[in-house]
Design brief:
This protein is of the alpha+beta class. Helices cover 23% and strands 21% of the residues. The protein contains 13 helices and 28 strands. The strands form seven sheets. Strands 1, 2, 10, 11, 12, 15, 18 and 19 form an eight-stranded mixed beta sheet that branches. Strand 7 and strand 8 form a beta hairpin. Helix 3 crosses helix 6 and helix 9 runs parallel beside helix 12. The longest helix has 23 residues. It is globular, with a radius of gyration of 26 Å. The chain starts with 25 loop residues before the first strand and ends with a strand.
Length: 629
C-alpha cells in the first residue's frame, strides 16, 4: 500500500480548515425533533460560518476561493477565463505568496481566484506524486486533458505554473494555448522579506492579471446545478417518471450549500461555533433527491451556509478515494474524524451487526484496526465543537434521521422522483403498494428536513444513546407517512449477474447485471474466492448494466464466483468456471461460455506520468504573459 507511513501521520495543525463531518446526536423522530435533556445549554439562535482563508492565511475579505478536485476539473472544462493558484496550507510557496496574490487581485479589480490543493487531505495525499493506483490518475487526467495543452508553460512536471490564468478556448497561432499567463518559479517567505521584494512580486502578479484581460466568474450554484442536472439526466435520460430533465433551476440561485475540501472540513470541526453540515455528493442520486429542499430550508431559516462535504475525495469514485469505505487505503481519514470529532454519532448501521468502517488509526498499519460508525449519504446535521451534555462530549447537536423508536435508526435515502410525486420504476404499476410507501417516506424525509431547520440553534437535543423506546402517542395527521419507512436502499435490492465470452485467463467477456437498484452508481464487481476488485459500474433507470471486461491473466483455472456489491453488501453473484489458457492446456480451446455470473476488468491506467515540480534552487520569479486572444 502507498502513501501511509509508520509511525502515524501527523494530523492538521490547529490553524486548520473548514467544513462538514459531524453526524449523529439528536435524532429526528418521524418529522419532529426529540426533546433535549435539561442539562443541554442552548447554543443560541444564530448558525455560524467560518472563513477558512482568513483563519488559515490571515487574509480578511479575500477573493481567494478554495475548490474541491471535482470543481477544479469541472472549471477546467468550462468556457471562460479563470485564475488559479495551485497549493495549500502545507505548501511553502502558497503560504509565502497567497496574501500578495490576493492583494494584487483586489488592486486589479479581480474578484475571484480559485485555489486547488493537490494534497487532498491537506498534508500527505498529493495527487501529483502518489503511487496509489486509484489516486494518481486524477492528476494525470487533468494534465493530459487540460493543463498540458499550452505552447509556452504547459504542465510537464519540470517547471509547472503555480499561479496562472486558464482559458480552454485560447489559442496561439491556431494551436491550443490554454494557459494565458503564469508564474512558475519557486518563491519563499524569506525571499519576499528582502527590501523591495514584496512590491516586485506583487508587480509580477499584477502582470499576470493584466496580460489575461477580463476574467470570468463562476459560482457555487453554477457548478452544483450544472453537475447535479447533468448527472441526473445522464442516469434517467429526462424521463418524466424519474423527475424530468433537471432538478435545480434558476429559482434555486439563492444558493447556501457550499462545497468544501477535506482540509476545510477539519478546520470546521475544530472551530468554535454552531454549524449546519451536509454529507453527500453530486454523484449520489439520494443526495440529489433532497439537495433542492436542503437549500430551500436554509434560505427559509436564514442559514447563510450549509457546509457540503463529499466522502469521495474526487466527487465520483467508489475506490480508495471513498474514505468511508473499509476497503479504502485512506479509511483513516474518515475513521479518525469520527473518533475525534463525532463521538455521539448515530447511524443506521450498527457496528458488528449491520455495517461499520474499519481503519488503521492515523494510517499506521502497525496499529490494531479500529472501528467507526458508518453513515450513509445524504446526511444533514448540526454541529457545535466542544459541546458537552451530562459530562459527555456531544458535538452533534441534532441530525436528520428517522428514529425507529427502539434504539435503531433509518437514514433518509429517497429519490427525487418520489419527492415530487413521480412514480419512477412504478410507472407501469402505479397501484403497487410499494409506490405509496416510497412516496410516504419521501414526504416524511422532506417534512423532517423542515423540522430540523426550524429547530437548529435552539440547543434542543436528545442523547442518542437513550432514544425513546416507543413512538409518540399523538395521532399523526392524515398526511403523515407510516412510522416504519421503506427498507429499500441499493444494498436491499437483490438482482442477478451474467457473463458471456471467453472464460479463460486474459479472455474478453461481457458482464450484464439486472434487477438491481435503478440509476445507482458505485457497484463493485469482484472475482472470488480470493477477492479481487475488478471495477465499478452504474445501473441505468431499469437497474441494469453491461460491461466489457478482461479476465486477469493471473486468475487460475477452476471454479470462481463473481459478485456484485454495494456498500459492502453482495447484491448479485453466480458461479463461473475459468478454463485453462490455450498455452497451459497445450492446445486451443475457444473457452467461450455463457454463465450466470461475470466480472469487470480494472481500468488500465498505463503510462501515467507522475508529475513533480522540480525546483532545486530558488529563482527569480518569472512572468510569462501573452496578449489575450
Amino acid at each position: 500500500m502507498s502513501d501511509h507511513r509508520h509511525p502515524p501521520r501527523r494530523r492538521h495543525r490547529a490553524v486548520a480548515i473548514a467544513t462538514t463531518l459531524a453526524l449523529g446526536g439528536a435524532a429526528l423522530l418521524g418529522a419532529a425533533a426529540v426533546a433535549a435533556p435539561a442539562s443541554a445549554a442552548p447554543s443560541g439562535a444564530t448558525i455560524d460560518t467560518v472563513d477558512y482563508v482568513a483563519d488559515t492565511y490571515g487574509i480578511a475579505d479575500s477573493v481567494i476561493e478554495t475548490v474541491t478536485f471535482e470543481r477544479f476539473e469541472w472549471l477546467l472544462g468550462q468556457e471562460g477565463r479563470f485564475a488559479f493558484l495551485i497549493g495549500g496550507a502545507e505548501d511553502e510557496r502558497t503560504t509565502a505568496t497567497i496574501a500578495a496574490i490576493d492583494a494584487a487581485a483586489k488592486t486589479a479589480g479581480v474578484t475571484q481566484v480559485f485555489t486547488f490543493d493537490p494534497k487532498l487531505d491537506g498534508e500527505s495525499l498529493d495527487i501529483r506524486t502518489t503511487t496509489n493506483a486509484d489516486v494518481a490518475p486524477l492528476w494525470a487526467r487533468v494534465v493530459a486533458d487540460n493543463l498540458s495543452k499550452d505552447t509556452q508553460t504547459p504542465f510537464d512536471g519540470s517547471d509547472d505554473p503555480y499561479f496562472f490564468v486558464y482559458d480552454k478556448s485560447h489559442t496561439e497561432g491556431g494551436v491550443e494555448d490554454r494557459i494565458v499567463s503564469a508564474l512558475t518559479a519557486p518563491i519563499t517567505s524569506a525571499q519576499l522579506a528582502a527590501p523591495g521584494a514584496l512590491a516586485s512580486y506583487q508587480a509580477e502578479v499584477a502582470g499576470v492579471f493584466s496580460a489575461a484581460g477580463t476574467l470570468s466568474k463562476s459560482s457555487q450554484f453554477t457548478f452544483t446545478s450544472t453537475a447535479v442536472n447533468a448527472k441526473h439526466f445522464k442516469d434517467y435520460k429526462g424521463a418524466d417518471a424519474y423527475g424530468g430533465a433537471t432538478i435545480l433551476s434558476d429559482a434555486d440561485s439563492d444558493w447556501r450549500v457550499q462545497t468544501v475540501t477535506y482540509p476545510e472540513l477539519v478546520h470546521l470541526l475544530e472551530s468554535d461555533g454552531d454549524f449546519v453540515l451536509f454529507f453527500g455528493g453530486t454523484w449520489c442520486h439520494n443526495t440529489r433527491a433532497v439537495l433542492k429542499d436542503v437549500n430551500a430550508e436554509a434560505v427559509a431559516n436564514d442559514v447563510e451556509k450549509v457546509y457540503f462535504f463529499d466522502l469521495r475525495l474526487d466527487g465520483a469514485s467508489s475506490n480508495d478515494l471513498h474514505i468511508r469505505d473499509t476497503n479504502s487505503e485512506f479509511a483513516d481519514f474518515y475513521g479518525d474524524l469520527v473518533a475525534k470529532y463525532l463521538p455521539n454519532l448515530v447511524t443506521q448501521y450498527v457496528p458488528g451487526v449491520s455495517g461499520q468502517v474499519d481503519y488503521y488509526p492515523g494510517g499506521d498499519r502497525g496499529q490494531a484496526l479500529a472501528t467507526a460508525k458508518k453513515l450513509q449519504v445524504p446526511y444533514v446535521f448540526e454541529y457545535e465543537h466542544g459541546r458537552v451534555v451530562d459530562g459527555t462530549a456531544s458535538p452533534v447537536v441534532r441530525q436528520w434521521i428517522h428514529d425507529n423508536g427502539n434504539g435503531t435508526y433509518k437514514e433518509y435515502m429517497t429519490e427525487w422522483w418520489y419527492v415530487i410525486d413521480k412514480p419512477g420504476r412504478y410507472e407501469k404499476t402505479p397501484a403497487d403498494a410499494g409506490l405509496a410507501t416510497q412516496l410516504a417516506f419521501a414526504d416524511e424525509a422532506i417534512a423532517s428536513l423542515a423540522t430540523f431547520f426550524s429547530e437548529i440553534g435552539e440547543g434542543t437535543t436528545v442523547d442518542p444513546t437513550t432514544p425513546p423506546t416507543t413512538p409518540p402517542t399523538t395521532a399523526p395527521p392524515a398526511t403523515t407517512p407510516p412510522t416504519t419507512p421503506p427498507t429499500e436502499k441499493p444494498s436491499d435490492v437483490l438482482g442477478s449477474v451474467a457473463v458471456s465470452g471467453d472464460l479463460r485467463p486474459g479472455g474478453k467477456i461481457t458482464v450484464t447485471g439486472s434487477g438491481l437498484a435503478e440509476g445507482t452508481s458505485g457497484f463493485t464487481v469482484e472475482i472470488r474466492s480470493t477477492p479481487q476488485t475488478l471495477g465499478t459500474v452504474s445501473t441505468d433507470a431499469d437497474g441494469a448494466f453491461t460491461y466489457a471486461a478482461t479476465i486477469p491473466a493471473t486468475i487460475p483455472a477452476g471454479a470462481h464466483t463473481i459478485a456484485v456489491t454495494i456498500d459492502g453488501v453482495t447484491v448479485a453473484s453466480a458461479a463461473i468456471t475459468v478454463q485453462a489458457s490455450a498455452t497451459a492446456a497445450g492446445g486451443s480451446t475457444d473457452g467461450l461460455a455463457h454463465t450466470g455470473a461475470g466480472f469487470v476488468g480494472p481500468l488500465a491506467w498505463t503510462a501515467i506520468a507522475l508529475l513533480v515540480a522540480a525546483a532545486a534552487v530558488f529563482a527569480v520569479v518569472r512572468l510569462r504573459a501573452r496578449g489575450a486572444a
